Amino acid sequence: MKKKHRKLKRESLVCVLVLALLSLICLLPLCLVVSASLTEESYIQQNGYSLLPHYPSLDTYTFLIANKGKIIMKSLLTTCSVVALGTLYSVTVVTCFAYAVSQKKSVFRFTRALSFFAWFATIFSGGVLPWYILCTQYYGLKNNLFALFIPYGMSVWNMFILRGNFRQIPDELIESAKLDGASHGQIFTRISIPLARAGIVTVALFNVLAFWNDFYLPKWLITNSDYYTLQIILYNMLSNAQALLKNSELSELSQKVKIPTETAKMAVAVMAILPIVILYPFALKYFVKGINVGGIKG
């Protein structure tokens, strides 16, 4: 027993060291980005990037806010609206679908059909062009806020996670509620959803990350700049540094003003990831628990 305990202890230590090393590798690029955004442009051009900022300066952030503050704020509000509405919509659809397929065939006879339909949809797809025609020509999902979250309403991966959470609910608890006269709607809202809270929060976090980082829907379905999300605005700034001076107070001096190209790229990257970095620690415990519970019964 002592030898077995020592072996497990050594294995645990190795796992901790490996995970710590991988975490450090993942943090290094983030440190470089933050450091570069706080470093003077001239220093980066002469010496390159470093883990710690040399001659720390907020000039790049001041420049972005002064010249692109209105556009960034407008795109940020659009992105936040899409994240809120999209997460609520997607979690509702996925939760209802997952609860239906988690039921026994004696309770809901279409359980297997819905499960097969979800599995089939993950393997076969009609293609991007038919999807684009369907969204724009038939559903009217173009140049409006709904186009930014309606196509992502159903996620089969998230559905399987929630299905596992719902299947962990004891059958005795459901039967007891039925004996007390509870309907299927009451069982779903008052028993199943509270007990599957960890999985629902996990799915909600997945959706927040997906909608916040999404680039394809606004690129394919949006041509009106009024509905540009933060990712599109930041992409335009990263791909063309001259866009930083376009329609700004410095447009007439664009030939004389030195654009903070490198630091601006890092600054907009920090602006894009900062909200997610702040949100993630608060939902981490639900994230881990939801994945563990959802993976017990596939």
Write the layout of secondary structure elements.
Blueprint: H1 2-37, H2 41-47, H3 59-101, H4 111-123, H5 128-138, H6 156-167, H7 171-179, H8 184-195, H9 197-213, H10 216-221, H11 230-239, H12 261-294
Helix pairs in contact: 1-12, 3-6, 3-9, 3-11, 6-9, 6-12, 9-12, 11-12
Task: Describe this protein's structure.
The protein has 298 residues and is mostly helical. It contains 12 helices and no strands. Helix 3 crosses helix 6 (156-167) and helix 3 crosses helix 9 (197-213). The longest helix has 43 residues, at 59-101. The radius of gyration is 25 Å and the shape is globular. The two termini are 34 Å apart. The model is unreliable at 253-257 and 294-298 (pLDDT under 50).
What's the quick description here?
The chain is mostly helical. It is built from 12 helices and no strands. Helix content is about 70%, strand content about 0%.
